[in-house]
Amino acid sequence: MKLLLDTCVIYPTVMREMLLGASRVVGWYPLWSKQILEEWARAARKIGATGEMQARAEIALLRAAWPKSEISWLPSLEARLWLPDINDRHVLAAAIAGSADLLITLNARDFPRETLFEEGLDRLDPDALLLKAYNSHPGRVARVANEILLEMRRSSGKEWEICDLFKKARLPRFAKVISESTV
């Protein structure tokens, strides 16, 4: 299954790492565009002087790990699309051009299901997607979550609990399930 990852689910580190780790485990293929990655880099400026540089380094690693995931399209595709926010048309264009099955986003309001259905797509929030991954491969997804937990403890110097980490990452239902499985 091909998943177009919107900027809002790629930019947060824990969410991105969990989505990519689950994709590897389940066999999903993540997609994005140059525009989506550029939005991530620009958004990272908000965290300080080195935010954009760090994002660009992470983007380079992402491109190296998933070399066929970056989608491009002809301008005519984007021009024919309608969404409530004109600035989101590039996301829908990437999903269509990449033959994505699902658009993974936190912005449901900006991607009306009727519009997506017309293009042969549906959307899902990352929390629901990760629950699906866990339900199909519980042990392997739990290992990915634990690896992320250990890395976040190491890199932040904070003794995160798994439930708190994934709740902070805006994955509350996944946090509950994963914390119950690791008790």
Write structural notes for this entry.
With 183 residues, the protein is α/β, with parallel strands linked by helices. It is 60% helix and 9% strand. It contains eleven helices and five strands. It has helices at 7-10, 13-26, 34-43, 51-65, 75-79, 89-97, 113-118, 126-136, 138-156, 162-168, 172-181, and strands at 2-5, 29-33, 70-71, 102-104, 122-124. Strands 3-2-1-4-5 form a five-stranded parallel beta sheet, sandwiched between helices. Helix 7 links the parallel strand 4 and strand 5. Helix 2 (13-26) packs antiparallel against helix 9 and helix 10 (162-168) packs antiparallel against helix 11 (172-181). It is globular. The chain starts with a strand and ends with a helix. The mean pLDDT is 95.
Overview in brief:
The protein has 183 residues and is of the alpha/beta class.
Number of strands: 5
> Which bin fits the share of residues in helices?
55-70%
Order of helices and strands: EHHEHHEHHEHEHHHH
Radius of gyration: 16 Å
Most strands sheet: 5 strands, parallel
Low-confidence stretches: none
The mean pLDDT is 95
Quaternary organisation of the protein chains: single chain
In what order do the strands lie side by side in the largest sheet? 3-2-1-4-5
Number of contiguous helices: 11
Shape: globular
Separation of the first and last Cα atoms: 31 Å
The share of residues in extended strands comes to 5-15%
Structural class: alpha/beta
